[in-house]
Amino acid sequence: MKTLNEYMALSYRMEIVEDKDEGGFVVSYPDIPGCITCGETVELAVANAVDAKRAWIEAALEDGVEINEPDSLEDYSGQFKLRIPRSLHRLLAEHSKREGISMNQYCVYLLSRNDAVYSK
Q1: Which residues 6+ apart lie within 8 Å of 105 measured at CB?
Q2: Contacts for 84 with CB less than 8 Å, ≥ 6 apart
Q3: 73 Cβ partners below 8 Å, 6+ apart?
Q4: What are the CB-based long-range contacts (under 8 Å, 24+) for 80-88?
Q5: Where along the chain do its domains lie?
Q6: How does DSSP classify residue 66?
Q7: What is the C-alpha separation between 18 and 26, in angstroms, rounded?
Q8: What is 77-118's CATH topology?
Q9: SS3 95
Q10: CB neighbours (10 Å) of residue 94?
């Protein structure tokens, strides 16, 4: 098992969300369940998050709780193969041609646009 300093040195992804109801910002670490804090400014919220991460990891080490390591983008190639109906392939090719971009770029645009709708 790693030490507190070794866990603190790992690059855990931080999510910062504006709290429109209460004001300020809420910060959490997706790879550290339950480690969440807030602050009136982004800077204060981030500073509080570092303190919260330290306290969470210290408590987990004391209690023998498993500590997840950060998810790594190195596990993802950025590529996947997708089989689609020929009619959809044709539509995507036609739309991307009209936009003057590759079909790959057009599909990334569509996926990211759709993801943004469901991420709210």
Answers
A1: 96
A2: 92
A3: none
A4: none
A5: 4-63, 77-118
A6: -
A7: 6
A8: Arc Repressor Mutant (1.10.1220)
A9: helix
A10: 11
> Which residues are CB-neighbours of 7 under 8 A, at least 6 positions away?
57, 67
**pLDDT tens digit sequence for 44-83:** 999 999 999 999 999 999 999 999 999 877 778 888 899 9
CATH class of 4-63: alpha beta
Average of per-residue pLDDT across 88-96: 95
- How far is it, in rounded angstroms, from Cα 16 to Cα 73? 19
User: What confidence tier does 116 reach under pLDDT thresholds 50, 70, 90?
Assistant: low
Residue 19 neighbours by CB under 8 Å, 6+ apart: 25, 26, 38
Using DSSP's 3-state secondary structure scheme, residue 37 falls into: strand
